[in-house]
Amino acid sequence: MSATITSDAPVSRLDPFSERFLNDPYPPHRELRDAGPVVRLERYGIWAMARHEQVHAALNDPETFRSAAGVGLADFTKEKPFRPPSLLLEADPPEHSRARRTITGVLSPKRVRSLREAFEREAHALVERVVDQGRFDAVDEFAEAFPTKVFPDAVGVPDKGRENLMAYGNMVFNAFGPQNEIFRESAKGQDEVREWIAEMCLRENLRDGGLGADIYEHAPRHEMGPDEAALLVRSLLSAGVDTTVHGLGNAIYCFATHPDQWAAVHADPSRARAAFEEVVRFESPVQTFFRTTTRAVEVEGVTLPEGEKVLLFLAAANRDPRHWEEPDRFDVERRASGHVGFGSGIHACVGQMLARLEADVLIGALARRVEAIELDGEPELKLNNTLRGLASLPVRVHPASA
Length: 402
Ligand code: OVM
Hints:
The chain has 402 residues and is α+β, with helices and mostly antiparallel strands.
């Protein structure tokens, strides 16, 4: 007997990073789920899982499915990473644990709750502005306007240069895919963006009392030095902006295309938080992440060798009919918890409470003021190797009579 790859695994020729796939991922997601619990993607010589059961299990078995070899297509044991690896995202225990504890300490429930008032002031002003306009672009003027203000305010990033945040996130999330045209286009001429980000990670540029400064304060308690603290600030700046922008944009898209669902949120704005959870399930901002096998592992009769890249389709798991009832129905009243849009296990999104707070506050404010949202033109997709969201979303809103 020899240790050859057992190839009774289903094989697919799909390219999950092609424009065709990214434009309408749901039919190929179904194809991948139906092909089997684990599928070989010929094009990249990798494996894929698209069913909820296997995606959830892999996320919760970090000893077998590690992150330190990168959570993108690139294998950090063979290729130079696109940037110095994240101490959080691209790390395994025990190194990951110190970084995680530091960030968890900073983003405590109490600290996140303390941000609500400032978020509400900003949300109120923004909602008044768009209601006055009547017609606006729900991406630039709403979904992007809010997180790009309140998030850097919370972290303590100075005003000047904040436009770099979106460009940086777009590039980082593209870098998890192959070096295709989508990635190259987003990385073009970004040296200054990367320099600005590196500057903003330094203690001297972060406002006292902000989350960034808090990272520097907590770091020594977990044996982390200033260089490591700077990398943790980089994690906030990488993962905290584009993700929420896409989540909020996708939310407005879902509401505009499902008017009865917006009517339910308008009738009871306390539903905003649960409605956002359903948005993250239904149009997951982060579509995929990779893991790398640390040993030969059997998945439902198929043996994956050691050191293999496995692409986990979070967004496909979130619409797996083996797990969800009528998964393709957007229903703000369903129990969407259990989705893996924020991941699961030790790497689950550490900022998810902050993301939910932003969404709750902004969607809640809109729900109190607006009774109907309608499309006012063709939405335009923003192509990204990892993120799903819109580049433009023209809408018209109808204020509720006071
Ligand atoms: C990080 C990082 C970057 C992008 C995404 C992410 C979704 C984390 O630098 O730690 O998590």
